[in-house]
Design goal:
This protein has two helices and five strands. With 80 residues, the chain is mainly β. A five-stranded antiparallel sheet has the order 1-5-2-3-4. Strand 3 and strand 4 form a beta hairpin.
Amino acid sequence: MHARDVSLTLSVQDDSSILNHIPATVIDMADTRNPAYVLVRVDAGGVLLLARITHRSCDNLALEPGSRVYAQIKSVALLS
């Protein structure tokens, strides 16, 4: 699974095409080679996931280590 296949929300989204959502906690964030994106590492019940989101989304969600989020994972990422 790629970081681009994982999005983050603050609550469960029932009106999304992404049907897989897992409660998680933000561990840390790191800049990427592309200045528009940030990599967010989350702990989803002992499983580490990476989400690549924009800096704008990171700011809008007010993410910081310890933030509780839901990781949304695209089904196609799980099938490949």
